[in-house]
Design goal:
Number of strands: 7
Number of helices: 4
Strand order of the largest sheet: 1-7-6-2-5-4-3
Largest sheet: 7 strands, mixed
Helix content: 10-25%
Strand content: 25-35%
Shape: globular
Oligomer: single chain
Order of helices and strands: EHEHEEHHEEE
Low-confidence stretches: none
């Protein structure tokens, strides 16, 4: 699947992503401030999370629970500098838990990423709009 969307209606986009991706591990690529966390917040809301959703910049991973008692893991790997740091937090256990995993800055642990993951590239255009490409 290779689709490109605009960021106009983030709720509709969230529904489209959840209903169309073949894997529960989503890799979010894009520059700082492009909207990765904003999109992840909407994905969590669509999946039924009622908790406050925030970027796990300092904790590296936040765990959310849906209304159906399912777990969602939200990673911000911006501060990770090597694979060993990610392994120390048990990242592989999260990836293979069969729960949703939303990963910001996955390029920082490229060697550890599961093969069965969906890449989501967010880009900021010159006019201030954003596009999202899903592969």
């Amino acid at each position: 699947m290779n689709k490109t969307f605009t960021f106009n209606d983030v709720k509709a986009l969230s529904r489209e992503i959840i209903e169309s991706v073949p894997h529960k591990v989503l890799l979010f690529y894009g520059e700082m401030g492009v909207g990765k966390t904003t999109l992840i917040k909407e994905l969590c809301k669509y999946l039924g999370v009622n908790d406050t959703i925030s970027s796990p910049t300092f904790s590296l991973v936040n765990e959310y629970t849906t209304a159906h008692n399912e777990c969602i893991y939200h990673f911000d790997l911006y501060r990770i500098t090597n694979d060993e740091e990610a392994l120390d937090i048990g990242i592989e256990d999260y990836f293979y838990s069969k729960n949703w995993c939303f990963i910001e800055w996955p390029q920082n642990i490229e060697n550890l990423l599961p093969l069965e993951a969906t890449k989501i590239q967010l880009s900021l255009l010159e006019d201030g709009s954003r596009t999202i490409t899903i592969n």
